[in-house]
Design goal:
The chain is mainly α. Helix content is about 75%, strand content about 5%. A two-stranded antiparallel ribbon has the order 1-2.
């Protein structure tokens, strides 16, 4: 029994090590240039070990996106308000990516931009629909399209403004939020007219 737990623990360590290595390689190379040989070399595993855990690099991408969006959703829920108590705060995706660089290479890679949008929309869609269906009167398909455009803009602008100072970032982010809010408020007003 103890031996089985040790084997499972080692397998999990290797599995996660390969995913972490993939994220590290994304800092150095474009996604399309990363090979299984690279991953094996930098993770310190054999090809056989790699194939025990993943069938191809695409499977790593899928899993890392799932991990990232799970982590991001959890980070978005709780934040300290500066006092001793915690309050629930919803932070935007771009704020969370700016503050937590681990997943920046994944979301800001040119080659992974569309998969990043797709995975993010899937992860956030139901929460978005729960809030917006009744408010806007729009159908699910239209709202999903609007969410997709919103996520595309968020990721692209976050990447573009990543190196800016916090002050510049806040100014831009406030402008972007007002733009989105005005658009949704216009839809809501039109629905209520």
């Amino acid at each position: 029994m103890k031996e089985e737990k040790a084997i499972l623990s080692k397998d999990n360590f290797i599995h996660n090590s390969i995913k972490d290595t993939f994220l590290q390689l994304l800092l150095k190379k474009d996604y399309m240039q990363i090979t299984i040989t690279d991953l094996c070399k930098y993770a310190g595993v054999s090809r056989g070990t790699f194939y025990t855990h993943f069938g191809n690099i695409g499977q790593i991408v899928e899993e890392v996106f799932s991990d990232a969006l799970y982590d991001i959703k959890n980070m978005a829920l709780l934040s300290e308000n500066g006092s001793s108590s915690n309050i629930i705060v919803r932070k935007g995706l771009c704020w969370l990516l700016r503050e937590n660089p681990k997943y920046q290479p994944l979301f800001f890679s040119e080659a992974l931009f569309l998969p990043a949008v797709k995975h993010t929309v899937v992860a956030l869609k139901q929460d978005f629909l729960d809030v917006m269906l009744d408010k806007t009167g729009l159908d699910e398909s239209t709202l999903t399209d609007l969410l997709t455009v919103q996520i595309m803009g968020c990721l692209e602008m976050c990447r573009k403004h990543l190196g800016k100072s916090d002050e510049e970032w806040c100014r831009f982010h406030t402008c972007f939020d007002l733009f989105l809010k005005a658009g949704y408020e216009g839809i809501i007003q039109n629905n209520n007219a």
